[in-house]
Amino acid sequence: MKNAIGRVEASWRPASPDEGFEIVRRRLFQPLTGEQFVARDAVARAFSELYGSQQQEFPLECREADYERRVKLAYPIHPELFDRLYNDWSTLEKFQRTRGVLRLMAAVIHALWERNDANLLIMPATVPVDEPIVHLGSEHPHSAREETSPARKEAASILESRGTSPRNYKNTLVFLAADTIRLRELEQAVRQYLAWSSIWDDRTTLNLDPFQSRQAETKRQNTDETVDARIPETYQWLLVPGQPDPKGGIQWTEIRLQGQEPLAPRAGKKLKNEELLMVQLGGTRLRHEIDKIPLWRGDHVGIQQLCEDMARYLYLPRVRDEDVILAAVRDGLERLTWQNETFAYAEGWDEPRGRYQGLRAGQPGRVVLDAESLVVQSEIAAAQIEADRQAATATSPRTVSGPETDSAAGSARTRTGSASGTGTTVAPPVRQLRRFHGCVKLDPVRLGRDAARIAEEVVQHLSGIVGADVQVTLDVQVELPQGASDKLVRDVTENCRTLRFDEFGFEET
């Protein structure tokens, strides 16, 4: 037998984190080509310079020369995320280092792709919290109102530490546990399925006749369906840590889930409905949370710091990801009542000059998540804006000798006179922007989602203006190399008529 098989023994060792970079990248991403290498190197250099310029804000290893090489190896995933998965998560029982990382990162990458995430790297803070919900194993079940259940003990242990280190980002975790009684029923169903599967697999050895074989096959299928049905019935407890009082202890909320949906989406939906996971946050709510603690660092707080705080502290709202916070900042920035209800936004703080750079409030604008962008207290921002306005007024007026009437036009024009003449101050005309137009290509695979985002983030702002005449058209152009079948022509034509297309049709090339 040994000669026939010809097996050769070889020593085996788990993949190192650096080797894991390459394994995950090859399995989940296409190889880099051409300009993509240049883009990768530019990103690695930018992160390296950021860590070097903000040394007090980042761990020591980030400043080492070798860290830039690690960013390139792990690209487009930040090496810190790999370190947490390989060094911390691998200490969890039954978490397979490479396979576990592959499964988790495949789910994370899909979720970020669906959301059209535009971050330069996939970082720990960008992992969607509603995707990696912690599923406690069957050895840690829970019963209603049992504070010492195996599930509560295990959840508390995971919440407090990651491996041998204290856990920092506690507000990114929720736990899903099995019900103690339902678990016994699930285990019984699994045993029956395994028994009938064994009979079916050994039907030849057991010399089963056709009737018995069909019976074994039917039983195997039925018990398999029973197991599938009992899994969501069993994993019905959602354990959510919270801290109503910032100075108090952790309190656990237990929620019983119902329904037959997949476990993670069902848990995520319940969390959203109970506002235990925020997928949307208004500017006024964000201002309230910042004031309540408070989270201000002086007269402002960095947006990155806000994201850090939200992920770290259990007494703050649990948000899906950093995009929720960015949307809340944009909402607060656009409000005309910003001085009383929200805040202002600045691109940075000029320490030598003692003023904010790119300060904006009460108007739509781009909000960036970087180490410099800030949310600014409204009264502080209002003072700088007023000072800038007064300074601009003092330097921008024109001096004229008096109005001269243009009889042909039937209107008065103001002309600039000599410097020695007695003049009157006239403010420059206000520029009026009266038309907007935009054109964008949409991904046909994600057409509904992308169109909804455009409607919400662009069209909604414009259509809300009194008297605005908003027109939106959809232009569809499709090349069919193999030609269109008669059925396709009939179906599309009928649907276009039903949807009242102004014009449509198939053409020959």
Walk me through the topology.
Elements: H1 2-5, H2 17-28, H3 35-53, H4 65-74, H5 79-88, H6 97-114, E1 134-135, H7 150-160, E2 161-162, E3 165-166, E4 175-177, H8 180-201, H9 210-234, E5 237-242, E6 251-256, H10 263-273, H11 283-292, E7 300-302, H12 303-312, H13 322-334, H14 338-341, E8 344-346, E9 348-350, E10 355-357, E11 374-376, H15 378-395, E12 398-406, E13 411-416, E14 424-426, H16 447-463, H17 486-498
Parallel strand pairs: 1-4
Antiparallel strand pairs: 2-3, 4-5, 5-6, 7-11, 8-11, 9-10, 12-13, 12-14
Helix pairs in contact: 2-6, 3-4, 8-9, 11-13
Q: Any overview of this molecule?
A:
About 45% of the residues lie in helices and about 10% in strands. It has a four-stranded mixed beta sheet, with helices on one face. Strands 7-11-8 form a three-stranded antiparallel beta sheet. A three-stranded antiparallel beta sheet has the order 13-12-14, with no helix packed on it. Among the domains are: about 15-125, no CATH class; about 180-235; about 285-390, no CATH class. The radius of gyration is 31 Å and the shape is globular. The protein has helices spanning about 1-5, 15-30, 35-55, 65-75, 80-90, 95-115, 150-160, 180-200, 210-235, 265-275, 285-290, 305-310, 320-335, 340, 380-395, 445-465, 485-500, and strands at about 135, 160, 165, 175, 235-240, 250-255, 300, 345, 350, 355, 375, 400-405, 410-415, 425. Mean pLDDT is about 85; it is low at about 1-15 and about 400-425. It has 17 helices and 14 strands. Strand 12 and strand 13 form a beta hairpin. With about 500 residues, it is of the alpha+beta class.
